[in-house]
Design goal:
Layout (H helix, E strand, L loop, with lengths): L2 H9 L1 H4 L5 H13 L1 H13 L4
Length: 52
């Protein structure tokens, strides 16, 4: 995970997971709308997952 990807996930989490699939984008977007912190945490977890 690059520095720019982490920075993007902090500023706008849905943009950081664009290449991870529609489901990931939707989950992160909904969590981001509910609150900034849950969206950032979800984006970082998805980006750190080595299986995806």
């Amino acid at each position: 995970m690059s520095f720019w990807r982490v920075l993007l996930s902090i500023l706008c989490p849905p943009l950081a997971v664009l290449d991870k699939g529609c489901g990931s984008i939707l989950i992160v977007f909904i969590l981001w709308i509910c609150g900034w912190v849950p969206g950032v945490i979800a984006a970082l977890v998805i980006l750190n997952n080595p299986n995806r």
